[in-house]
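Most newcomers find our protein records easier to grasp once they have seen one. Nothing more is needed to start thinking about how sequence determines fold. Here is such a record, shown just as it appears in the course material:
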Amino acid sequence: MTKLLSKKVADSRTLISQLMMPNDANHLGTVHGGVILSIADKVAYVCACRHAGSYCVTASVDRVSFDSPIKVGQLVTFDATLRYVGKTSMEVGIDIYAEDLISKIKTKTNTCYFTMVSIAQNGKPTAVPSLLIETEEEKAKFEEARLRKELSLKYARGKINSLSS
């Protein structure tokens, strides 16, 4: 087995923007949450693949918050970065912003966390490079992600009754 090198958070950062159209919206003119999640899943995939250097699959979506509605005609930008890396899994955090192209006002509308797993050609999970933490912000995000993972594992094993505990 070859030794995997560490990679920087910036090496896999993924920024994707998409204009929201009428077919993305409900009858109120706001974008369906499922549209946002579908795009976010693709962005998480790109970010994870860039880091892992292999195909990746979505293992879970830990948390999604919809803090502000997104309207038809707004440009939505998905800013994905790795927050945590384990042996074969990675947490991709995505901050989502909506921009009114006329007024130039940008609003952070969503945050979500995807756990992605690196998959080898044989279909089995495969090791990924470690994450090289360079800034205090990256360190804080890494620690938050580590705690999310720890709580999630405790919940899955029945050691806590609710993730809000």
